[in-house]
Design goal:
With about 220 residues, this protein is of the alpha/beta class. Helix content is about 50%, strand content about 15%. The protein has a five-stranded parallel β-sheet, sandwiched between helices. The mean pLDDT is about 85.
């Protein structure tokens, strides 16, 4: 299947560069570009892309608010936010708004392509170098003790263990190796965790784990 991508960035050269990198792939198609959040909303309505590659800082309607609108109105459209800084508080807002990943603008082309494919396949881009550091630094004062949550209490011991490993930025393969399970079994556990917690993907699981105090910054 060909993955359709909408590129959103207020810098024309950045849009051109991203479009060239993605368009060079046989399984990716750049179906449109937008220079701001408002234009992105219109383009999503018109083009219905599989993935939106979204700049965070833009004039007018920024990437955070645009991401929130897109994920609310079009649940099947996945959003990957991009920013210059890995400690950008706006990027955290985008993750909370439903983005499926977070990339730096200096991400190597091969990693960008891989991220788009992963997100289109229903996974999420959760990089220890980026997402864990972002959350660890921005959530500076987590609860002293984990906050009670009926949803989290509904998890089995194994599912809770998987949630903590997701929050640590571990991939399915790494979780499988650590727990001595097959990747298929881990994938099943991840799916159950997301379903019980009412979460869209792994990124939101990471955010929830930090916000509930299950994982401490720097841990």
């Amino acid at each position: 299947m060909t993955v359709s991508v909408l590129v959103v960035d207020d810098q024309e050269l950045m849009r051109m560069g991203l479009s060239m990198v993605l368009g060079a792939q046989a399984d990716l198609e750049v179906v449109g570009e937008a220079a701001d959040g408002a234009s992105a909303l219109s383009a999503v309505e018109r083009l219905r892309p599989d993935v939106v590659l979204m700049d965070v800082r833009m004039p007018g309607l920024d990437g955070v608010r645009a991401t929130e609108r897109i994920t609310a109105d079009h649940p099947d459209v996945r959003v990957v936010v991009m920013t210059t800084f890995d400690l950008d508080e706006h990027a955290l807002g985008a993750l909370r708004a439903g983005a499926s990943g977070f990339l730096l603008k200096d991400t190597p082309p091969e990693d960008l392509v891989s991220a788009i494919r992963s997100v289109a396949a229903g996974d999420a881009v959760v990089s220890p170098r980026v997402t864990r550091r972002l959350l660890s630094n921005l959530i500076a004062e987590p609860p002293a003790e984990p906050r009670p949550s009926p949803e989290i209490d509904s998890l089995t011991d194994r599912e809770r263990e998987v949630l903590l490993l997701i929050a640590a930025g571990k991939s399915n393969a790494e979780i499988a190796a650590g727990l001595v399970l097959s990747e298929a079994t881990v994938k099943t556990h991840v799916g159950r965790v997301l379903a019980k917690l009412g979460l869209r993907d792994r990124v939101q699981a990471v955010v929830l784990a930090y916000e509930r105090g299950l994982v401490r910054p720097g841990a």
